[in-house]
Amino acid sequence: MNLTAEKPEIAVRTTRPKRGIHFSIPAIAAGLLIYIMHMGIIYIQSQDLQTLERRILVLERDNARLSEKLEIKEVVEAHQRGFSREEVSQIVEVLDRESDRYGIDPLLVLAVILTESEFKRFQVSKVGAIGLMQIRPFVGKDLALRRGIPWNDEIGLFDPTLNVQLGTTYLFELLLKFNDLTHALTAYAHGETRLRRRLALGRPTPEAYSRRVMNRYDQLVTEFRERDLKG
Q1: Quick one: which of 1, 84, 177, 184 has the most CB atoms within 10 Å?
Q2: Contact call for residues 83 and 73 (beta carbons, < 8 A)
């Protein structure tokens, strides 16, 4: 009889580590939180950058508008005849506003004014065209009514700001109708109906007036705009 007790075998379980990297749930949650915070910071920074870029564009546009307005002011002050300081300021404002409204170079509008009236206050032509941009009363009244602008028969086109406002509108409409600067300027000077009749008959377009305007325009560009660019 074997009195020695047999020792029970103890099964030792060996756990082999699994391949790969494994994180605990808290570690995963912390990592996810850090990621979300990081993406949030990136988003905020991108929004701030877009806002800054928009502000820069606005400042650049405002600076360009200011430079253009100063350019208009210089031309008006150099060429106007018989207007008070307050009236000059009003003319500058309307030139700046209306040229921007229609996308027309204000120096071109000023070239038309100088060609038409030499910037004289009470200029009236032989055919009854009035004011800075030499508009006939029936044309001016029609333009005013279509734009919803109050019309005063007594003052009418002798009001310099109204004259420029309506004259710029008229020039813009002719540019739209003819899609040609020479034709638009010719129609401005000689009348739309007369020009269309000549074109329908195949006759050449009179270009003397448009050349005078463009010569004035080139002079203004050289004297006031290119000078600033060179400086």
Answers
A1: 184
A2: no
CATH number at residue 64: 1.10.530.10
* Mean residue pLDDT across the chain: 85
Its pTM stands at: 0.73
pLDDT at 64: 66
Task: Check if the beta carbon of residue 157 is closer than 8 Å to that of residue 166.
Answer: yes
Residues 6+ apart with CB under 8 A from 199: 183, 205
Q: How many CB atoms lie within 10 A of CB 169?
A: 20
The answer as to whether 20 is a domain residue is no
Q: Which among 68, 64, 62, 65 is positioned nearest to 225, based on CA atoms?
A: 68
**Structure token pair of residue 7:** 């020792």
Mark 113-133 as b/e (b = at least 16 C-beta within 10 Å).
Answer: bbbbbebbeebeeeeebbbbb
